[in-house]
Amino acid sequence: MMIDQDNDGDNVTASADTAGANDASVNKPPGNTAPNSFIAIKEVNVMSRGRTLRLQVADIIIAINGEAFHGTIEELLDELDEADPEEGFLMSLWREGIIFSVVVRGPLGCVFEYASPEDAEKASQEWSRYAMPPLDDFVMYEVLKDIHRKCDIIDTRTDPLGYLMPPFWLIQKQLWEPLVALIMIYLVTFSVHWIMFVITAIILAVYFSRAQTALLRSFALYKEKQMWLILAATSEKEVQLFCRHFDPKCDFKGSQVGPPKEDEEKPRKKRRRSSVPG
Fold first, then answer.
1. Per-residue pLDDT reduced to its tens digit, 212-238
2. Domain boundary at 68, 99, 132, which?
3. Do 7 and 126 sit in the same domain of this protein?
């Protein structure tokens, strides 16, 4: 039994071919209230919030706001529909033996099913050993990776340095092209009139207070990196540990988890000498 919910959360269907109403009912399977029952992702629609959050098929939803979730699919859909579009809520998932969290601000646009008993048992055991940090400690991070497995980790919080002293923030983030453009703007406006310089500086401060994440993301994409993961974690080191678990060969600038796993060198084959004279 699975339920498909579109990205806007308006339609619910009992199968891929049958459309239902908003209050479509879901029959709770036997034993669904067992402490090791969970809901898994069956499909992730192409244009959906779940795709944006980089959720994957077989991810198991194990907790909402730090509390284990053993409800029905219909109850999960209700939670998603009622999510605050600004604050959202913390959803913890299990994937490949590790627990990670994301901030959800509405319907995911995914197809859900009940996890198999084997996977549910593994997730339950992992959750019982997991020490959940306080919810206020979680921060949203975006991870972008290139073909060489070099990763950029973006802290989505607003850095006060960005709007108080934009040039120093750009130097800290090593965004050299915007830094040159910013200095040129300062010089041109100051040469015209100091009042214009002050007005421009205020406008730029407002811009840098609102567009830091977008600017960092844009330049990561400019460097041919692609969005890989979006995680809620308590520190950048924790994000690096998650990334290293999913890809042991990924690397970071200023790595806090040591060097990546290196490829094992294959023994060279000895060249056979030709038996033909000359």
1. 999 999 999 999 999 999 999 999 999
2. 132
3. yes
